[in-house]
Design brief:
By secondary structure, this protein is an alpha/beta fold. Helix content is 35%, strand content 22%.
């Protein structure tokens, strides 16, 4: 078995619209596509021995043990690898379940598709599944130590990729609200929402968290001073910078017992409490100073009581938890060391902040605390005795949490909310020490010890005792109050031909409404009228550039075959999905072998439209029209023929459509006809002579109307958009060069050649063609291009792209020539594109039309400018 390629899908895709996170494993099974019947019993036995939990996989039989039944009956080896990859992730704690395995056109090569939760873990599972199955085939088993290592590695990869409990809760709550999210590439930030409506998180800090409040909360002594001046009970304390200041500071706070902690620390690091002697204070000073960035140490009076965390969001108390330091309870038999080991076996405990609980680690602080009690790790405590192993109650050092939300006194609620307002934070966690949170602090002798920015949510989401509190909900409500938008309109455009022109036209129409439009095309990413990045940008990464941008109000995204196939769409759902046509192009690439395969791929855009949105479909193309059956969205059709039966039936039922009727671009809404403009007046259609441009204009107009634009707004956009090198470079750009004309178009497949021919055939003079095609097309496609060129042009120059895409130089030109000769025509081969263009332009007869179908549009436009007479306007 040989892995040929591993791809990652991150959005709606060819395999699944709903399951956006998929691994695609291209696998050469090297003669083991299906196991010979004599090997099946041994393989089955080895597989069940290694992964007995596969009995829980139902598979197509739909019952427990269904997958293993398929193995016994004989199934594709790729299918087995699919299930093993899923099960390895499941055993490592990741919830996955979707998978597919398909043969490809290459014998013995399979596409194995399965779900992942974390990308790197999914890729690892793909490789591990192949190793495991190969080992069982070769040796009848897979070493137990190898499986153990695989699962440890998978858990580690999952741990590294997980968001942490606080962020995870916020993201989950956003998802429940239908708010899209994505991790940002720096500082562990999360983007919620799209475009101009987006908000940002970093753990529990938000883009509403003020820098002044954040800085103040990090200055523990400054916070305490401000609160003391406001009449809030806080610990008596001072800040020192050197050890020789310690003794005076202890006297200043009223003597022992005291607390020492770093001025700018966090997570309880460097804190020592209940210090009652100077030697202890010296040791505590060294610890606190080492954890302080400024080497400054806070000396405070120690207040006895219980440790409470009060969480305030948007000025309101939303949860209260009591934090209990890491501890063990004696049983009269076990040593303290054994009790710690037993406690750490709790499956909820682990390393870091990503688990419900953190493992208890033994360090010098622990030995110091035990020493004060006269204990060691070998001490056996009486049954029921509680021994605290940490001075602080932080969950990150093994503490536990008990929910006390329903017990806090109303006066303490008022005080906590006032404190957070004084500091100036949107989200804050107050550390309060008091004997009883149900009694006002002043009566109980309690104090506000700290105010924490970016407080952890773990203790509230999953307390060890009491009611879990959904503290993520008020945060999301703060960022996105009910009724406010989180998404910008997304209009996606796909098809074989016309995508870029339609995308640009649609973006132009929306630009006329004075909204900031971000759009992606084969020639670049644009925001407003500004180019962000040049080149072919029709994949999901380019879409994310637009959706991530906080200035964009409308997104118009060209979605090409390659991007959908390689990575899926760059968004979860769109408001309008336009499918222009499906024609023979790129067949034989990426296991897309037939027009039906291509239609299935393009239908991803229609299927990704929200139920309230519109799938805009070409009623004249049966493969596109059929997509109405697979979309959840409302359907709107466009057609060049006003009496198209499908359109007639659709509008009779009150549906929405756009047609070309009596020379007009018109919207049909039920029984009503809303005429937009005469096609001849729309510059893009070249006086109404370019029928395929009329079809593109219909699609764009219908999409804009479906998204709520008025007929007047659409008309204004159509009348101000031209097939020029500025607005649609390489798309029907017609140039007057004095005694002849030149036309530049990116036609590169049979369908686009045919559409172009509809315009060229009406040209009154001689027609010269500079033709070619991308080298990765099929041989028969090149021959067809040659035949079509012969029907279109009086004189043909065949050139080749600089990038032959793996073909031998001259091979594509040879095949096009075969097609030209089959029509009884002649041709000249000039392989270099620049030379071919210069030859055609330099020898153009008077009144002729030179049609150039280039690889490089920009280079071609520059050559045309060189041939433009100086007296002619640009």
């Amino acid at each position: 078995m040989k892995i040929l390629k591993i791809q990652t899908l991150r959005g709606p895709n060819y395999w699944s619209i709903r399951r956006s996170k998929l691994i695609v494993l291209r696998l050469d099974l090297e003669g083991l596509a299906e196991l010979p019947s004599n090997l099946i019993p041994g393989f089955y036995e080895g597989l069940v021995q290694v992964l007995p939990s596969l009995v829980e996989h139902y598979c197509s039989p739909g019952c427990r043990g269904g997958f293993l039944q398929r193995v016994v009956e004989g199934t594709m080896q790729g299918h087995i690898i699919e299930h093993v990859a899923l099960e390895l992730q499941q055993l490592a704690g990741m919830t996955v379940g979707f998978g597919r395995t398909r043969e490809t056109a290459t014998p013995g090569v399979y596409q194995v598709v399965f779900e992942y939760q974390y990308e790197q873990a999914g890729r690892y599972a793909a490789r591990a599944a192949v190793r495991l199955c190969q080992s069982i085939v070769d040796q009848g088993s897979y070493p137990a130590e190898d499986l153990t290592q695989d699962l440890e590695d998978l858990r580690e990869l999952a741990q590294e990729a997980s968001l942490g409990p606080s962020t995870e809760a916020l993201v989950k709550e956003a998802q429940n609200r239908g708010i899209p999210w994505a991790p940002m590439s720096t500082r562990s930030m999360i983007r919620l929402g799209y475009g101009v409506y987006q908000r940002r998180l970093q753990a529990t800090q938000t883009d509403l968290t003020g820098i002044l409040g954040l800085e103040l909360a990090c200055d523990k002594e400054g916070t305490k001073t401000l609160l003391r001046e406001a009449g809030v009970p806080v610990p008596q304390g001072t800040v020192i910078h050197y050890l020789d200041e310690l003794e005076r500071a202890i006297e200043e706070v009223g003597g022992y017992p005291i607390v020492l902690k770093p001025l700018d620390g966090n997570h309880g690091r460097g804190i020592t409490i209940n210090i009652d002697s100077y030697p202890q204070a010296e040791a505590a000073y060294d610890l606190a100073s080492s954890e302080s960035k400024s080497r400054s140490v806070i000396v405070e009076r120690f207040y006895r009581g219980r440790d409470f965390r009060v969480l305030v969001v948007q000025g309101r108390v939303v949860a209260v938890a009591e934090r209990v330091p890491a501890h063990v309870v004696g049983d009269g038999v076990s040593t303290i060391a054994a009790l710690v080991e037993s406690t750490n076996r709790d499956p909820r405990r682990g390393q870091g902040h990503n688990n419900v609980l953190t493992r208890i680690e033994i360090d010098q602080n622990t030995h110091t605390i035990l020493g004060r009690l006269g204990y060691t790790m070998d001490t056996v405590m009486p049954a029921g005795e509680v021994c605290y192993l940490r001075a602080t109650a932080n969950l990150s050092t093994g503490g536990i949490a008990v929910d006390r939300t329903d017990e806090i006194h109303p006066e303490n609620v008022w005080l906590a909310q006032r404190v957070v307002k004084i500091i100036g934070l949107d989200i804050a966690g107050l550390d309060i020490v008091t004997p009883d949170i149900g009694v006002p602090l002043r009566e109980a002798g309690g104090v506000v010890v700290e105010v924490n920015a970016a407080p952890g949510f773990r203790m509230h989401l999953a307390p060890n005792e009491g009611i879990p509190r959904n503290v993520a909900e008020p945060v999301i409500n703060m960022l996105f109050p009910p009724g406010t938008p989180c998404r910008i309109p997304i209009l996606a455009v796909t098809g074989t031909n016309g995508k870029t022109t339609t995308t640009r036209l649609l973006a132009h129409i929306f630009n006329q409404t004075l909204r900031t439009v971000g759009y992606t095309t084969t020639d670049g990413i644009y925001i407003g009228n500004h180019l962000v990045e040049g080149g072919d940008n029709t994949g999901p990464q380019s879409a994310q550039v637009i959706l991530n941008d906080p200035t964009v109000e409308v997104a118009v995204l060209e979605c090409a075959r390659g991007g959908i196939l390689r990575s899926g769409l760059g968004f979860e759902a769109c408001d309008v999905g336009v499918v222009l046509n499906v024609a023979a192009d790129h067949l034989g690439l990426g296991d897309i072998e037939t027009l039906e395969d291509m239609a299935r791929l393009k239908s991803v855009v229609a299927e990704a439209v929200t139920p309230n949105g519109y799938a805009v479909l070409n009623a004249d193309d049966p493969l596109v029209a059929a997509m109405a059956q697979s979309t959840r969205a409302q359907v709107a059709y466009f057609a060049m023929e006003p009496n198209n039966p499908l359109v007639s039936l659709h509008t009779q039922r009150g549906g929405l459509a756009a047609v070309y009727e009596h020379g007009y671009l018109s919207i049909l809404k039920g029984d009503w006809v809303l005429r937009i403009e005469l096609a001849a007046n729309v510059p893009l259609t070249l006086g109404g002579r370019a029928e395929f441009m009329i079809a593109n204009a219909l699609a764009a107009s219908l999409a804009a109307f479906a998204q709520g634009l008025s007929i007047e707004e659409i008309r204004a956009g159509l009348l101000s958009f031209e097939a020029s090198a500025e607005q649609t470079p390489g798309r029907m750009n017609l140039f007057d060069l004095g005694h002849y004309h030149a036309l530049v178009d990116y036609a590169h497949n049979p369908a686009s050649y045919t559409a172009l021919g509809g315009f060229v055939k009406n040209w009154p003079g001689r027609k010269v063609g500079v033709v070619g095609g991308p080298g990765d097309r099929r041989d028969e496609d090149f021959i067809t291009l040659g035949k079509l060129a012969a029907q279109m042009f009086d004189e043909i120059l065949i050139k080749e792209d600089d990038d032959t895409r793996g073909r031998d130089r001259g091979d594509a030109a040879r095949l096009i020539g075969i097609g030209v000769q089959a029509q009884g025509a002649t041709f000249t081969v000039i392989l270099d594109e620049v030379t071919a263009i210069k030859t055609a332009l330099g020898n153009a007869p008077a009144g002729s039309l030179v049609v150039i179908l280039p690889e490089s549009v920009n280079r071609t436009l520059a050559l045309i400018e060189e041939h433009r007479p100086s007296a002619l306007p640009i």
